[in-house]
């Protein structure tokens, strides 16, 4: 196939894999998703459009930041959520390890594995062709050594189809990890403030930067991650004053979550912003900073209850949702075969359905289809 050949050629010009995807906003099977580090004029694939209307790269984010335009980031974990983000024109799609909680139902982000994250990454890469794709390095896959960090980051790009990775924390070993991953040619987003992977030492999901020492630490670690080469930083659950100070001190964009309005952009978790989990328990544990832009969970609950009622009462599926028909001749043949097989009861059941359907479709009773 021509498309396969194009993909092979593209692979030859880069060490990373690419995904051929159908653009969700167009019916043309034409969009080959290039990673952000594919050069603008690919040698063998011909020049490819690099406008932010086509796909977002680090350059577009830098330009937006320079112009003071807020950057939009949302998490996604599967094909449908990725398609929704793409259609909404979100700049960055973060395959967050929050998947452990909102998709897998764990109480923390710690249990999710790299293999599980890679499944989420691949599904998202198939669904989102325009946003920059950032994949989280899960807990336990990058802390041991710089080599481990690079190996994991490479897998997130090669096997997950991501454009960049995100890692949490600003301890010296994390700054080193960020630096070596960038040196390996992989764009890194940092994450400071509340870093959920460190829940064990933080003593819970607690806001950070609320006293002088902690606020200074947020700014210091942000600066260290910038020096390590991060292209952007998530600031999670810090006072707006601290986020404003960090944003002002940095040259790279800050992406806030529970960090007030004075960041270069904002990120929210897909399920939180859509109001997916409307069970009273989840409503209680949804973070205070999260605005629900919809109550999709209520819509889902109502649809499932309606479905259950209609199946129970027999009103679904009705004629409108029973589209498959047999010709009158085939019905006759089928009834004869059933009788030959000794399945008289089954033949009567089938005949009764034909009669009932005929009555519903032409109440005058013409042409029953059974002789
Ligand atoms: O895992 C995640 O979803 C995140 C965001 C909350 C920034 O890290």
Automatic annotation (TrEMBL):
Signal peptide: none annotated. It catalyses: (6R)-5,10-methylene-5,6,7,8-tetrahydrofolate + 3-methyl-2-oxobutanoate + H2O = 2-dehydropantoate + (6S)-5,6,7,8-tetrahydrofolate. Keywords: Pantothenate biosynthesis, Transferase. One of its GO terms (biological process) is pantothenate biosynthetic process. The keyword Transferase applies. GO terms for molecular function: 3-methyl-2-oxobutanoate hydroxymethyltransferase activity; magnesium ion binding. It is an enzyme of class 2 (transferase). Pathway: Cofactor biosynthesis; (R)-pantothenate biosynthesis; (R)-pantoate from 3-methyl-2-oxobutanoate: step 1/2. It comes from the Eukaryota. CDD domains: KPHMT-like. Its EC number is 2.1.2.11. GO terms for cellular component: mitochondrion. PANTHER family: 3-METHYL-2-OXOBUTANOATE HYDROXYMETHYLTRANSFERASE. Catalyzes the reversible reaction in which hydroxymethyl group from 5,10-methylenetetrahydrofolate is transferred onto alpha-ketoisovalerate to form ketopantoate. Belongs to the PanB family. This is 3-methyl-2-oxobutanoate hydroxymethyltransferase.
């Amino acid at each position: 196939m021509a498309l396969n050949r194009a993909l092979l050629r593209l692979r030859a010009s880069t060490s990373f894999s690419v995904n051929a995807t159908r653009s969700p906003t167009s019916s043309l099977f034409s969009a080959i998703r290039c990673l952000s580090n594919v050069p603008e004029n690919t040698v063998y694939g011909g020049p490819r459009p690099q406008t932010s209307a086509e796909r977002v790269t680090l350059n577009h984010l830098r330009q937006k930041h320079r112009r003071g335009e807020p950057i939009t980031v949302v998490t996604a974990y599967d094909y449908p959520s990725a398609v929704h983000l793409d259609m909404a024109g979100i700049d960055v799609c973060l395959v967050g390890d929050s998947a452990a909680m909102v998709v897998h139902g764990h109480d923390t982000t710690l249990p999710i594995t790299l293999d599980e994250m890679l499944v989420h990454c691949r599904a998202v890469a198939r669904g989102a062709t325009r946003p920059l794709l950032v994949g989280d390095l899960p807990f336990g896959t990058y802390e041991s050594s710089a080599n481990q960090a690079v190996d994991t980051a490479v897998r997130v790009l090669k096997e997950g189809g991501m454009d960049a990775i995100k890692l949490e924390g600003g301890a010296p070993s994390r700054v080193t990890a960020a630096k070596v991953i960038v040196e390996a040619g992989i764009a890194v987003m940092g994450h400071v403030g509340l870093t959920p992977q460190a829940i064990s030492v933080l003593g819970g999901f607690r806001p950070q930067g609320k006293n002088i020492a902690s606020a200074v630490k947020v700014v210091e670690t942000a600066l260290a991650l910038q020096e390590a080469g991060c292209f952007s930083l998530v600031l999670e659950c810090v006072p707006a004053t601290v986020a404003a100070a960090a944003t002002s001190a940095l040259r790279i964009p800050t992406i806030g979550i529970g960090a007030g309005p004075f960041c270069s952009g904002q990120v929210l978790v897909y399920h939180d912003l859509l109001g997916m989990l409307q069970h009273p328990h989840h409503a209680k544990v949804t973070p205070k900073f999260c605005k629900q832009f919809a109550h999709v969970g209520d819509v889902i609950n109502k649809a499932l209850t309606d479905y259950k009622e209609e199946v129970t009462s027999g009103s679904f599926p009705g004629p409108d949702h029973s589209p498959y028909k047999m010709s009158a001749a085939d019905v006759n043949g089928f009834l004869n075969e059933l009788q030959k097989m000794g399945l008289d009861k089954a033949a009567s059941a089938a005949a009764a359905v034909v009669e009932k359907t005929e009555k519903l479709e032409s109440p005058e009773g013409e042409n029953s289809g059974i002789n």
